[in-house]
Amino acid sequence: MPDKVAPAERQILPGKPKEVQSVKLKKELGLLDGVAIIVGVIVGAGIFVSPKGVLKSSGSVGLAIVVWVFSGVLSLVGALCYAELGTMIPKSGGDYAYISEAYGGLPAFLYLWVALFILVPTGNAITALTFAQYILQPLWSGCEPPHDAVRLLAAVVTCLLTAINCYNVKWATRVQDVFTGTKIFALIIIIATGLYYFSTNDSVPFSQPMKGTNTEPGYLALAIYSGLFSYSGWNYLNFVTEELKDPYRNLRNAICISLPLITVIYVLVNLAYFAVLSRDDILASNAVAVTFGDKLLGPMSWIMPVFVACSTFGALNGAIFASSRLFFVGARNGHLPNAIALINIQNLTPMPSLIFLCIITLSLLIIQDVYSLINYVSFVEALFTTLSVSGLLWMRHKKPNLERPIRVPTILPIIFLIICVFLVTFPIYITPWEVGIGIIIILSGIPVYLVFIWMPTKPKWLVNSSQKFNTTCAKLFMCIPEEKDD
């Protein structure tokens, strides 16, 4: 896998266009694009469906609101820690780059292994299925759309967004900007209608906000997991650091604009839910926003499934754009086939990485219950986030003189690390099966690393197969390796 692409591959393709000075990823993302990526990836299906999970584990409306605020603050602290990591190690790839720099190749590969086959494609498959479910719902009034129709539409939208990202980075960011605005508009509608209902209704929905509170640490951790699921994606901008204009300023500013904005909106949306729906209504609903719309919007209730579909469409586009860079960087470092680190000479996009991610996502859509995979990866994701932030503290000790354009107060990564350790350890006795499967998935990457990466002398058939695969991809997608600056 880590063998170098044959030099002859540069002669496989026609000469580069004269106007292209070098074949490499371009810095085309400004502050607005950065905000749109963060908001667009975070605000997906989560806020429309996961309030049920937060309320179920926390037990009361009051504690649920506290969890939403805490999850937003925790995400902001984590994002600021990642801002220091992203400017101290200005490489695309996010956690993969930081773990590699702090702890070496094997831990970084294990993160890449889990992200490649479970974390990223599962999240994308869930988002695509959610989009298809809600866009088809109005056509099957009163019943669920057929599973085959949902999977087909999910596959089509995954391929469409992959094609857009392959063709033009600016097209992908414009799609992100438009659908980010759409989903924020949908949340504003929920907030406004909920506020109107609250002001004109005689009932008092918050009379006993702490009734039924569950303070058991394990369930509190699960409630925070559900809240953090709706905030997940706050680190995705770190995947594309190399494509940010003025990354030292725009990375920090995009984080400081996006996370407080999302936290305020999320809390207001949940207050609107609780003002209109009873606790039992929320716990009985699989899509709280749709139940909210059915009760409050009357003949216009169809608009809510459409808004959820738009939200997930934008989230899927942002996730495809950012996560493909993770695998591009992993291949560039020799941890994946070199073909995935090739760049299309016409569009300057990591086309093989995008297509490879698309294929894995499509394969997961075949699984009957792809949603069940989420239960196994929440623990794994929290574990590697803990590892990345611990790496920040370790790098301060290991390389104190390394340039840090953004440096957060030491207390922030320490607090974040302590909370992450709590979130990793306490659910073990509540969901031991999911944690065990997560650990097995991680450990399964060790023999792969030893055979394909670490072993100094590889079988000849493996080297020849890898070179043939790289050459075929270079010809098929009109790609060559990234050119380095002199």
From TrEMBL:
It is found in: Cell membrane. The chain crosses the membrane at residues 29-49, 61-85, 106-129, 149-167, 179-198, 218-239, 251-276, 302-328, 348-367, 373-394, 406-429, 435-455. It holds the Pfam family AA_permease_2. One of its GO terms (cellular component) is plasma membrane. The keyword Ion transport does not apply. The keyword Transmembrane helix applies. Its main location: membrane. InterPro entries: AA/rel_permease1, AminoAcid_Transporter. One of its GO terms (molecular function) is L-amino acid transmembrane transporter activity. It is a multi-pass membrane protein. Keywords: Cell membrane, Membrane, Transmembrane, Transmembrane helix, Transport. Belongs to the amino acid-polyamine-organocation (APC) superfamily. L-type amino acid transporter (LAT) (TC 2.A.3.8) family. This is Large neutral amino acids transporter small subunit 1. It comes from Fopius arisanus.
